[in-house]
Amino acid sequence: MSNRRRRLTGKVTSAKMSKTVVVTVQRSYRHPLYGKVVYSHRRYKAHDELGCQEGDQVTMVETRPISKEKRWVVVENLTRSGKDKAPAGATTAPASVAGVTEAETTG
């Protein structure tokens, strides 16, 4: 069985809630008529077990609804920002947090 969950990469814009971060995902596309590059962004609330901070670049995966607005889980912290840099091995979440089995992550 293949893993069909959507994965998005974005920047943490707020980390003030307990175990929740707000991630802004920016996408660019060409306007269909004028051809100009248009930038749009969307903010998602994601469950965070990694302790992400504002400015971190993270990858999140779609999951079952956790609360009224949370349907995403942070699975990887790509870049740390600020003074507190985590150890090299502490950047990925355990697969059980995202509800993903080991078989789905490897293949």
Percent range for β-strand residues: over 45%
Radius of gyration, in angstroms, nearest whole number: 15 Å
* Largest sheet, strands/sense/barrel: 5 strands, mixed, barrel
> What's the pLDDT, averaged over the residues?
85
- Which structural class do you get from the secondary structure elements? mainly beta
Terminus-to-terminus distance: 9 Å
Number of helices: 2
Shape: globular
Count of distinct structural domains: 1
What is the level-2 CATH architecture name? Beta Barrel
| CATH first level | Mainly Beta
Helix percent reads: under 10%
Quick summary of this structure?
The chain has two helices and five strands; from the N terminus they run βββββαα. It has helices at 95-98, 102-106; strands at 7-17, 20-30, 37-47, 57-62, 70-79. A five-stranded mixed barrel has the order 1-2-3-5-4.
General description of the model:
The chain has 107 residues and is mainly β. It has one domain: OB fold (Dihydrolipoamide Acetyltransferase, E2P) (Beta Barrel), CATH 2.40.50. It contains two helices and five strands. Strands 1-2-3-5-4 form a five-stranded mixed barrel. The mean pLDDT is 85.
